[in-house]
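In response to reviewer comment 3 from the previous cycle, which asked for concrete evidence that the modeling workflow produces usable outputs, we include below a single protein chain processed end to end. The sequence was submitted unchanged, and the resulting structure tokens are shown without manual editing.
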Amino acid sequence: MNDKAVIYARFSSYGQTEQSIEGQLRECHAFAERQGLRVVGEYIDRAISGTTDKRPDFLRMIDDSKKKVFSYVIVISIRQVCKK
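The workflow returned the following structure tokens.
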């Protein structure tokens, strides 16, 4: 089994700060450890809305997934990935 995972973290500018990213990363790393997954990368978009897919690290993560760099994406909430 491939145990390689990456973490995607994001915050929009509305009422959130860099501490939000730190908290997301901490919780995602803890989850990975509990699940026996090896985190091989982090993708972080700061002050960018989830309503657009034009987020630099999100797009880099999609490109890396096509290259099979990792098998799992860990997020604190699906809302970090997309919103309506």
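Residues 4-80 form a domain with the Rossmann fold fold (CATH 3.40.50.1390). We consider this sufficient to address the reviewer's concern, and the full set will be provided in the supplementary archive.
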